[in-house]
Structures are given as structure tokens and as C-alpha cells.
């Protein structure tokens, strides 16, 4: 008599948003890439150590050969980050991804890339299971126009949770915990403690602002320009702080 086969599901497959950084390669130099990424990891190990990254080859005039790309991937690993795929590009990029046995990833947090330097690294959390995401749907509007309405989030934004205000401002009346994220295409107002990450002007609005009642942030970013804090400056820790862009420089000051 045959043993009864277990027909229950072996797994549960779901799709969600995870923390992935985008590493844009502007020149083919594996040693320089490793050195730059190691510097980023040393500067903010909680943010970048073992962070999942996507290798973006689109800035290069010519797509590197397989051996060169393999060397770049190994440089990322040696620096302490984990390459998980290639950024979507041309049909040649797709063929390269197939040969390298890597997925081609079309969407990642490219909005938070710095504008200068040979290597651009978008902020990302360490690889983790699919995080809880709180989203508010909004009608699609021209990028130049900001919707007047505001998304209000009452209470704590928990560790691993993300709140995104698409095409609008975000007001949080509570604490943003460590490893939590609040993102807005407009301004961000936090009437509580910011212990995690706040990213305003996510679609490139350089006039966006961040206002925090109790500043203890891991990271703040406006229109792709960001600052990481391993140690909060003494004059800002626990203070009411505003963040804004002046040219390409992200500035912070007490309110």
C-alpha cells in the first residue's frame, strides 16, 4: 500500500517591497568600487553592512564583458554588501543577467542616489523578509504638481514598517522607530521622535522639507541627497530640527 502523499503547500510565495540599494557603476574599476563601498560600510555599518544591492551598469557607454561584471560583483561582496541582481536596462543587459544567473530588477530605490561621485549608493536596510508597507493610493498627477492633501499617520511607525505618502506631504503624530522608514513626495512632519529614516521629496522635489520634534535619526534624505547618522551631533540630538536643501547640500538646523 502506497504511503499517502502530503498535498499541503510547501511554501507561501508573496511579493512585497524590500530594502534594496542601487549601485550605479560610472567607471569599470573593481578595486576602486570595493574601496568606495568599504568606506560606505565603515561609515554606516548598520545601514550598509550586508545590504542587498542592485548593480546598475546603465551609466557606462559600453556594457562590460561577463568576466568584468563578475569582478564587479565580487568587489561588492568583498566590501560587505550582497549583490542580488542587475538593474533593468537594454536587451543586452537582460542577456547578461541570464548568463550571470542573476535576476533583472526594474524597480529599486533609485530616488535616493547622491548626484556626484564615481559610485552612487542608495540607502537601504540590510536584507530582510518582506516588510510591512502602509500605502495610500492617489490619482496619477503631473510630476510638477503636488497634490494638496496630506497623509496623516497616527501612532508609532514600527521597526521594519514603511509609510509612503505618494504625491503628497506626510504628517506622523508618533515615533518613527529604529529601522522604520517614512517617505513622502512632499514634506515630512514628525510630531514625535525620529529614530529611523525620513526621506522627503522622493520624486525629486528639491523644495521639500523635513521637520522633526525629537531628532535621533538614522538617516534623512531630500530629493536624493542624504545624510547618515551613526552618532547624532550633540547640538541636534533630541532637539526640534528642520532639514532642507541648499543647492546640492543637505542642511540641518534647530527649529
UniProtKB/TrEMBL annotation:
The record ties this protein, via SUPFAM superfamilies, to:
Cell-division inhibitor MinC, C-terminal domain (SSF63848)
Which segments constitute the Septum formation inhibitor MinC N-terminal domain? Answer: 15-83
Cell division found in the keyword field: yes
Where is the Septum formation inhibitor MinC C-terminal domain positioned along the sequence? 154-251
Record key words, sorted: Cell cycle, Cell division, Septation
Q: Does the keyword Transmembrane helix apply?
A: no
Question: Record's InterPro entries?
Answer: CAP/MinC_C, MinC, MinC_C_sf, MinC_N, Septum_form_inhib_MinC_C
Its subunit composition reads: Interacts with MinD and FtsZ.
Function summary: Cell division inhibitor that blocks the formation of polar Z ring septums. Rapidly oscillates between the poles of the cell to destabilize FtsZ filaments that have formed before they mature into polar Z rings. Prevents FtsZ polymerization.
| Family indicated by similarity | Belongs to the MinC family.
Q: Write the protein's name.
A: Probable septum site-determining protein MinC
| Protein's organism | Rhodanobacter hydrolyticus
Amino acid at each position: 500500500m502506497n504511503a499517502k502523499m502530503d498535498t499541503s503547500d510547501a511554501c507561501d510565495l508573496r511579493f512585497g517591497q524590500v530594502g534594496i540599494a542601487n549601485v550605479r557603476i560610472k567607471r569599470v574599476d573593481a578595486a576602486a568600487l570595493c574601496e568606495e563601498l568599504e568606506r560606505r560600510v565603515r561609515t554606516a555599518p548598520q545601514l550598509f553592512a550586508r545590504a542587498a544591492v542592485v548593480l546598475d551598469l546603465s551609466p557606462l557607454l559600453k556594457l562590460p564583458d561577463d568576466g568584468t561584471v563578475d569582478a564587479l560583483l565580487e568587489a561588492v561582496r568583498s566590501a560587505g554588501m550582497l549583490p542580488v541582481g542587475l538593474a533593468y536596462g537594454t536587451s543586452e543587459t537582460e542577456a547578461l543577467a541570464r548568463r550571470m544567473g542573476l535576476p533583472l530588477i526594474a524597480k529599486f530605490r533609485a530616488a535616493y542616489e547622491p548626484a556626484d561621485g564615481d559610485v552612487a549608493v542608495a540607502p537601504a536596510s540590510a536584507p530582510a523578509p518582506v516588510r510591512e508597507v502602509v500605502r495610500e493610493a492617489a490619482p496619477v498627477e503631473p510630476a510638477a504638481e503636488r497634490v494638496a492633501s496630506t497623509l496623516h499617520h497616527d501612532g508609532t511607525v514600527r521597526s521594519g514598517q514603511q509609510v509612503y505618502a505618494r504625491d503628497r506631504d506626510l504628517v506622523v503624530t508618533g515615533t518613527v522607530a529604529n529601522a522604520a522608514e517614512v517617505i513622502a513626495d512632499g514634506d515630512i512632519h514628525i510630531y514625535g521622535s525620529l529614530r529611523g529614516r525620513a526621506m522627503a521629496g522622493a520624486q525629486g522635489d528639491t523644495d521639500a522639507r523635513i521637520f522633526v520634534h525629537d531628532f535621533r535619526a538614522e538617516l534623512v534624505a531630500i530629493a536624493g541627497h542624504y545624510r547618515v547618522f551613526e552618532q547624532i551631533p550633540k547640538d541636534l540630538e533630541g532637539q526640534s530640527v528642520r532639514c532642507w536643501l541648499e543647492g546640492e547640500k543637505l542642511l540641518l538646523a534647530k527649529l
